[in-house]
Amino acid sequence: MSKQTTAWVGTGLHLLIAALMVFSGGLKLVSPDTMVAEDVAPGIKQHLSVIGIGEIISGLLLLPAELLPIGMLLTSSFWGGAILAHMQKPEPYIAQSVLLVLTWLGGALRRPDLLPFGADKPLPTEPFPGPPRE
């Protein structure tokens, strides 16, 4: 696959994830009572609008390539919080885990330079090349 094709596939993944997050965040803002089960901690119910706003912002920050690093960080944090919320109950959290992996897969396809190592970067076990010595 060419670099342009992989970038488009990554962008498509991020478009789907962002659409899901904007839709879900919007529902949290519009009708929070239908989005939360009765056995959820009261602190979560009180702050559901803040969670919804954060979800919308995180999803939207995935889209522009210039903001992709911060979008990946915020979206990863959101999915981590969603996984933790489901682990506490205990409920299945496979969907949130898959979305977290897809977020990073999309980022790796769009911007391989965001990864800590790659074809042009040394492995973490190799010494980092410093400035040339004279």
- DSSP strand content: under 5%
Helix/strand order, N-terminal first: HHHHHH
Total number of helices: 6
The domain count comes to 1
Kindly, what is the distance between the CA atoms of the first and last residues, rounded to a whole number of angstroms?
Answer: 41 Å
Shape: elongated
Main pleated-sheet profile: none
Low-confidence stretches: none
Q: Can you put this structure into words, describing what you see?
A:
This protein is mainly α and 134 residues long. It has one domain. It is 66% helix and 0% strand. It has six helices and no strands. The protein is elongated.
Quick recap:
With 134 residues, the protein is mainly alpha-helical. It is built from six helices and no strands.
Q: What attributes does this structure have?
A:
134 residues; mainly alpha; 6 helices
Detail the topology: elements first, then pairings.
Blueprint lengths: L2 H28 L1 H4 L6 H5 L1 H14 L6 H21 L5 H17 L24
Helix pairs in contact: 1-4, 1-6, 4-5, 5-6
